[in-house]
Amino acid sequence: MQNERQPCVYILASGRYGTLYIGVTSNLIRRIWQHRSDVLPGFTSRYDVHRLVHFEMFGEMIPAITREKQLKRWHRQWKINLINAENPEWRDLAVALGFSPLASGKTRDGP
């Protein structure tokens, strides 16, 4: 994936079935780097939510924001089902985008 601006909705997890975070960005690579580096204080740095487990690319920002709001309203199980449908092992998809695997301290597996 190139370092270009493209609207994207993404889901981060602290580990398999762990804490989830849903966000929207115009630059997924930069945003993942920000989350992983904990350069911005907030939810993901506080709860070690750094594993990219799902993302959806869009042509324009308005539909991406609409999708983010929709996903944030979903029940937790629906979000888990969405992740399991395309990423049943909850692999860190950021590795395929050029990021190094997370250190063992940055992943938490659930049940």
UniProtKB/TrEMBL annotation:
Is the keyword RNA-binding assigned to this protein? no
Homology family: Belongs to the UPF0213 family.
| Organismal lineage | Bacteria, Pseudomonadati, Pseudomonadota, Alphaproteobacteria, Sphingomonadales
Residue ranges of domain GIY-YIG in the record: 5-82
Question: So where does this one cross the membrane?
Answer: none
- Give the InterPro entries listed for this entry: GIY-YIG_endonuc, GIY-YIG_endonuc_sf, UPF0213_domain
What is the top-level taxon of the source organism? Bacteria
Q: Which UniProt keywords apply?
A: Endonuclease, Hydrolase, Nuclease
The name on file for this protein is Endonuclease
Tell me the organism: Novosphingobium barchaimii LL02
Please provide an example of a Pfam family that matches this protein in its UniProt record: GIY-YIG
Does Nuclease count among this protein's keywords?
yes
GO terms, molecular function: endonuclease activity
Q: Which Gene3D superfamilies match?
A: GIY-YIG endonuclease
